[in-house]
Design a protein that fits this description.
six-stranded mixed sheet, 22% helix
Length: 309
C-alpha cells in the first residue's frame, strides 16, 4: 500500500504482472482463452470536474470527462469490459449541494457503468433522494446486506446480478457498511443492516454453485482494514468467505499500488483492490480464462494530468 502522496509521485500508471497462485495461474498458451477487463472506481464524492489548478497536490486530476475518455479507449481495445463502482458517489463538491446527485448518476449512466453500491455518504440527502436520483440510472444498485423494506429504496436495489461476457458468467453482489453511528438515523430510516459476511457468503455460494459463475465479485463499502480487530473490513471478509474471487473496495480511500491477495476459509485466493478517492484513479484488472482462471495484469490508471506536488 502507498499513501496518497507517494502513490501520485511514483507513477501515473502502476502496472503489475501476472499474479500466480494455485487459483490464479497462467494456463497453457494452447488453451482456448477468453479475456475480461474489470474497471472500477470508489469514493468519487461528486468530483465531476478535475481538481482545480490551484497548485495543490491534486491539481488537474480526476473529472468525469477524462475518466469517460479513458474508459472509452479501453472499450475500443477490449471486447469484454465490466465497469463497477464501490460507493460514495455523492457528497464532496457543490454539485451535490445544489443538485443532490442527479449529475453524478447521469454521468455514470453516460459512461455505461454496469453496477454500483451505496456508501454511507450516498445516504446524506436521505433515502427518498437517492431513490429519486435512480430515475437517471441505467445500472443497478447491488446490495445483499441492506433490507430496504418499508423505505423509499424498497425494490430499488437487487442482491446480485449475473453479467454474461462472451461465454463467461460473472456474478456481482455488494455489501454496505454498518450505518448506526455513521449515518444519522433519520437518513437511513427503517433500513435493516444485515451481517455482510454471512449475506455475501450466501449469495456467493449461489452464484458459484447454482448459477455456475466463472468469477464472483463483491463490491464492498466496508473499508479495507482497521486497527480494531472486531471491525468488519474487506480483509476480514476475504478471510471468511469461500466463493468470492474479487473484492472491489471503498470507504477507507486506500490507494493500493497493486491488489492484495488474501486466503479464504478454504485456502483459496481472494483478490482485494481499492483505488483511493475523488475519481483520481481508475482500477483495471485483466483476467484470462482458459484451463485456469488467471489475473494476467493489473493497472491503476491515473485520471488527468499531474502538474504539481
Amino acid at each position: 500500500m502507498l499513501n496518497r502522496r507517494n502513490f501520485i509521485r511514483q507513477s501515473a500508471m502502476i502496472t503489475g504482472g501476472v499474479l500466480a497462485s494455485p487459483d490464479f495461474v497462467v494456463g497453457n498458451e494452447t488453451d482456448p482463452v477468453q479475456r475480461l477487463t474489470v474497471l472500477h472506481t470508489n469514493d468519487v464524492h461528486s468530483r465531476l470536474e478535475p481538481f482545480p489548478m490551484d497548485g495543490t497536490r491534486n491539481a488537474g486530476l480526476g473529472g468525469v470527462a477524462a475518466r469517460a475518455a479513458l474508459i472509452h479507449a479501453i472499450r475500443r481495445e477490449e471486447e469484454h469490459v465490466l465497469l463497477l463502482d464501490a460507493g460514495d458517489i455523492f457528497q464532496g463538491t457543490p454539485y451535490f449541494n445544489f443538485y443532490k446527485g442527479e449529475p453524478e448518476i447521469k454521468a455514470m449512466s453516460k459512461m455505461k457503468y454496469d453496477g454500483t453500491i451505496m456508501g454511507n455518504h450516498d445516504f446524506d440527502a436521505g433515502l427518498e433522494n437517492f431513490a429519486t436520483q435512480l430515475q437517471y440510472a441505467d445500472f443497478p444498485v447491488l446490495l445483499c446486506n441492506y433490507d430496504f423494506t418499508g423505505t423509499p429504496m424498497e425494490h430499488r436495489s437487487i442482491p446480485y446480478k449475473i453479467f454474461k461476457k462472451g461465454k463467461l458468467k460473472i456474478g456481482v453482489t455488494g455489501v454496505g457498511i454498518a450505518l448506526k453511528g455513521l449515518v444519522p438515523d433519520t437518513l437511513y430510516g427503517n433500513t435493516l443492516y444485515l451481517d455482510p459476511v454471512g449475506q455475501a457468503n450466501k449469495i456467493a455460494a449461489r452464484l458459484k454453485k447454482k448459477e455456475g459463475c466463472d468469477l464472483v465479485i463483491c463490491l464492498s463499502h466496508l473499508g479495507y482494514r482497521y486497527r480494531e480487530r472486531n471491525r468488519i473490513s474487506d480483509e476480514i471478509l476475504a478471510k471468511e468467505t469461500e466463493h468470492i474471487d474479487l473484492i472491489i473496495g471503498g470507504h477507507t480511500h486506500t490507494f493500493m499500488q497493486k491488489p492484495v491477495i488474501s486466503k479464504n476459509k478454504t485456502g483459496n485466493d481472494v483478490i482485494i483492490n481499492q483505488v483511493g478517492w475523488g475519481g483520481i484513479c481508475l482500477g483495471r484488472l485483466d483476467f484470462v480464462f482458459g484451463k485456469n482462471k488467471n489475473l494476467a495484469k493489473t493497472n491503476t490508471l491515473l485520471i488527468g494530468e499531474k502538474t504539481s506536488e
